[in-house]
From TrEMBL:
Listed cofactors: Fe cation
Keyword Iron: yes
UniProt similarity note: Belongs to the pirin family.
Domain Pirin C-terminal: 178-276
Residues annotated as domain Pirin N-terminal: 25-125
The protein, known as: Pirin family protein
CDD domains named among the record's database cross-references: cupin_pirin_C (cd02247)
Binding-site list for Fe cation: H62, H64, H106, E108
Cofactor remark from the record: Binds 1 Fe cation per subunit.
Transmembrane domains' residue ranges: none
Coiled coil: none
Single GO MF annotation: metal ion binding
Top-level taxon in the UniProt lineage: Bacteria
Length: 311
């Protein structure tokens, strides 16, 4: 425990990963010390990137199973296409939520005419057993609940925080919220004791219970907190992740979240054969081939990254 009886926080540095031909992201989850926060199992932060006169984001059609994708922009535009026939441009302050269920494929690209800056995050939510085999679906929410008080504007992207509740459909107790601070603003944020939480900075710097937070890292706040104190001298844009600890063990590989090595190998085979994940129509290019699988069996892990015995 830290001073004032709060659980110890841990700053997790991200690492850079190429995404497609033109975009490099900062991967914040999963990491070896911390695989998940609630059902949040994957976080990529990108930008701010100058894409003036450049293609911007160009991610060809690729498959997903066992998860939801959450796209949140600070700047720029992304055109989403999927195998359900969805065609939707997302802009800052809006939410694209894609639920893969048993299987879906999609592409993500900057429109031909796009703003000069690209900046945002994409996250995955692991689906629990009772939801991961359901049909795929796509949601776009242009208006999300927000409120401003004492120099802090809170927008709830998924879940609920205080009196604010997102219309987005999720399958476990979960929270994703943007916190936008004016310069010099402070916030004492009430938290649920049964959740675990993390914070990342999209812009600017903040102090969270005495720990400094800047873009490029994820601050894991631990479990059993009922409050956290945040202040930003120069103004900051933060994203709060929270959720009830996800107890189902997972196997994650490429774009798949599953429960066993065999499930992953079957999903890869079905993507290669053209089965299960459908076709993304309208994308001007080839779909993304799956990488080669490792020769050893993929490991089943719990939310903390511990290897579990499997099949």
């Amino acid at each position: 425990m830290t001073l004032a009886g709060l659980p110890a926080s841990v700053l997790l540095p991200g690492h850079d990963v190429p995404l497609g031909r033109y975009t490099t992201v900062r991967r914040l989850l999963p990491q070896r010390p911390r695989r998940m926060i609630g059902a949040w199992c994957f976080v990529d932060q990108f930008g701010p990137d100058d894409v003036l006169g450049r293609p911007g984001m160009q991610v060809p059609p690729h498959p997903h199973t066992g998860l939801q994708t959450v796209t949140w922009l600070v700047a720029g535009e992304v055109l989403h296409r999927d195998s359900l026939g969805s065609l939707q441009t997302i802009r800052p302050g809006q939410l694209n939520l894609m639920t893969s269920g048993h299987g879906i494929s999609h592409s993500e690209e900057s429109p031909v005419e796009h703003p000069p800056i690209m900046h945002g995050i994409q996250l995955w939510v692991a689906l629990p057993e009772d939801a991961r085999h359901q049909p795929a679906r796509f949601e776009h929410h242009a208006d999300l609940p927000s409120a401003s008080t004492a120099g802090v504007t809170t927008t709830v992207v998924v879940g609920e925080l205080g009196a604010l509740r997102s219309p987005a459909r999720v399958h476990t107790p979960l929270l994703g919220a943007e916190l936008l601070f004016d310069a010099g603003a402070r916030l004492e944020l009430s938290l649920r004791r049964d959740f675990e939480y993390g914070l990342l900075a999209l812009d600017g710097a903040a102090e969270v219970d005495g720990a400094e937070l800047t873009p490029g890292g994820l601050l894991y706040l631990g479990e059993e907190r009922t409050t956290t104190n945040i202040r930003s001298t120069d103004g900051a844009r933060l994203f709060l992740l929270g959720g009830e600890p996800f107890v189902e063990p997972l196997v994650m590989w490429w774009n798949f979240v599953a429960r066993s090595d065999a499930e992953i190998r079957q999903a890869r085979e079905e993507w290669a054969s053209g089965d299960r994940f459908g076709v993304v129509r309208g994308y001007a290019g080839e779909r993304l081939p799956a990488p080669a699988l490792p020769t050893t069996k993929l490991k089943i892990r719990d939310r903390a990254g511990n290897t579990l015995s499997g099949e």
